[in-house]
Amino acid sequence: MVPTGYFVVLSAVLFSIGTIGVLTRRNALIMFMSVELQLNAVNLSLVAFSRQLGNLDGQVLAFFSMVVAAAEVVVGLAIIVSIFRRRATINVDDESLLRW
Amino acid sequence: MSPEQLVFWILAPISVAAAIGMVLSRNAIHSALFLVVNFVTIAVFYLVLGSPFLFVVQIAVYAGAIMVLFLFVIMLLGVDRSESLYENIRGHRVISVVLVVGVLLEIITAIRLGMGVGSTGAPGWGAVNEGGNPQALARVLFSDYFLPFEVTSILLIVAAVAAMVMTRQRLKAVPSASDASKDEEVAA
Q1: Which of A52, A68, A75 has the CB atom closest to B122's CB atom?
Q2: Min Cα separation B188/chain A (Å)
Q3: What is the pTM of this model?
Q4: Residue B112 pLDDT
Q5: Total structural domains in chain A?
Q6: In a domain, A44, yes or no
Q7: Is B5 helix (H, G, I), strand (E, B) or coil?
Q8: Residue B31 within a domain
Q9: Interatomic CA distance for residues A66 and B125, integer angstroms
Q10: Residue A38: which of B105, B128, B35, B72 has the closest Cα?
């Protein structure tokens, strides 16, 4: 049996890589994919803790988080597409004009 | 080394390497494909952790539906847009990598102090999954979590409607046949 700590550490590593992606990349699509990576990393730690505690609530929470992630992807990609139609760019630095 | 440990030690480096490749690759398509590899490895970890239901959902929803949506949008927006390397805040890449590595070390220290890395979990995991993991999950989902479950269905409908409203093209009104005949009547 693989110790739970290994999965949690792996999940922390994946979450950190996703955070680096969000912070350093300027392409809105790749930033969004990095957010998905972070969500998945957290799901992995939820399932790992579900086994650690001998309780299915963690798996149910991971399931709900997948549903919310699906809804979030749909709305997020729709926003990216409509921004692209208006400004012809998906570089987030160019979208700073949003504040005007 | 047990088969589970073998699976973990083979797939964990692949998972991390795919995540790093996703962040580093210039081409958005390559990023998406690396992310699919990462999602599949995470799905296998769900199987190792005793959750075959989430394994299937992860493959179908993430690696299937969500990544296909991403690839569609990448194709729609054009794949060969090069990213500018101009930094609005000087040195923000280096600063963010340093900060994230610091946070990672802090999390790992917290895990070591909090639960220890070697703990394998509560005994009696087999009893929790009585009658199979999907059945056990369904019992929890449809009793304790029934209201949240119904709320997610509303959420999905709202998201689908929102996507349609936001990406709708405002077309110019095309004169229909009845309008044209009206115009003729006016002209006559």
Answers
A1: A52
A2: 43
A3: 0.87
A4: 87
A5: 1
A6: yes
A7: helix
A8: yes
A9: 23
A10: B35
Give the pLDDT confidence score for residue B149 in this predicted structure: 92
- A72 lies in which domain range? 4-93
Joined tokens for residue A78: 């729709």
Average pLDDT over residues A16-42: 93
In-domain check, residue A100: no
The verdict on a CB contact (< 8 Å) between B163 and A78 is yes
Q: What integer is the mean pLDDT of B27-44?
A: 93
Residues of B in contact with A95 (CB under 8 A): none
Residues of chain A contacting B49 with CB distance shorter than 8 Å: 7, 47-48, 50-51
Distance CA B22, CA B35 (A): 6
Whether residue B175 lies inside any domain: the answer is no
Confidence class for position B23, pLDDT limits 50, 70, 90: very high
Domain-embedded: residue A98? no
- Residue B137: list chain A partners with CB under 8 A: 56, 59-60, 63
For A36-92, the pLDDT digits (tens) are 999 999 999 999 998 888 888 999 999 999 999 999 999 999 988 888 888 777 788
Say if the Cβ atoms of A66 and B57 lie within 8 Å.
yes
Interface A:B, Cβ pairs < 8 A: 235
Identify from B45, B147, B151 which residue to disrupt to test chain A contact, counting A C-beta atoms within 10 A and taking the largest count: B45
Among B3-7, B98-102, B123-127, B174-178, name the one with the lowest average pLDDT: B174-178
**Nearest residue to B73 via CA among A77, A8, A31:** A77
Distance CA A30, CA B32 (A): 8
Residue at A19 is within a domain: yes
